[in-house]
């Protein structure tokens, strides 16, 4: 154990919590995802749903700080999803997705303060449906098989 002078001499364990450990990038994985934008979107959609489910679990167990952390991650992932939209005249679906992402993001913002989980449930329902539709599209187009 070491002493951390910035934390009023509070002892710091050498083994940091996983949340506080450095993120290690994997260049090979990132290169593969860059070559497969549909799979990247699928992973982002799965990630936002996973974070939503964790936020819901934290809400239920009254772990509000952790809930806020997961809600923040959801917002970050939604920003990444919106950044991948090609908003052109030829892509009207992209505008629809943008509106759904914005609605989900607003619901997430409201979920920060809610006593019940209406807004979080609403965001999760929308995002789960988008994820499921995206997965179905990838399966039907042959971009993903049952082993992925």
Helix-strand string: EEHHHHH
Total strand count, please? 2
Q: Would you tell me the structural class of the helices and strands? A: mainly alpha
If strands are numbered along the chain, what order do they take across the biggest sheet?
A: 1-2
pLDDT averaged over residues: 81
Helix content: 55-70%
Write the layout of secondary structure elements.
Layout: E1 2-4, E2 10-12, H1 27-34, H2 37-60, H3 64-83, H4 92-111, H5 118-140
Antiparallel strand pairs: 1-2
Describe the structure.
The chain is mainly alpha-helical and 148 residues long. 64% of the residues lie in helices and 4% in strands. The protein has helices at residues 27-34, 37-60, 64-83, 92-111, 118-140, and strands at 2-4, 10-12. A two-stranded antiparallel sheet has the order 1-2. A hairpin with a 5-residue loop joins strand 1 (2-4) and strand 2 (10-12). Helix 2 runs antiparallel to helix 5 (118-140). It is globular and about 40 Å long. The protein starts with a strand and ends in an 8-residue tail after the last helix. The model is unreliable at 1-21 (pLDDT under 50).
Key attributes of the depicted protein:
single chain; 148 residues; mainly alpha; two-stranded antiparallel ribbon; 5 helices; 2 strands; globular; disordered N terminus
Short account of what is shown:
With 148 residues, this protein is mostly helical. The protein has helices at residues 27-34, 37-60, 64-83, 92-111, 118-140; strands spanning 2-4, 10-12.
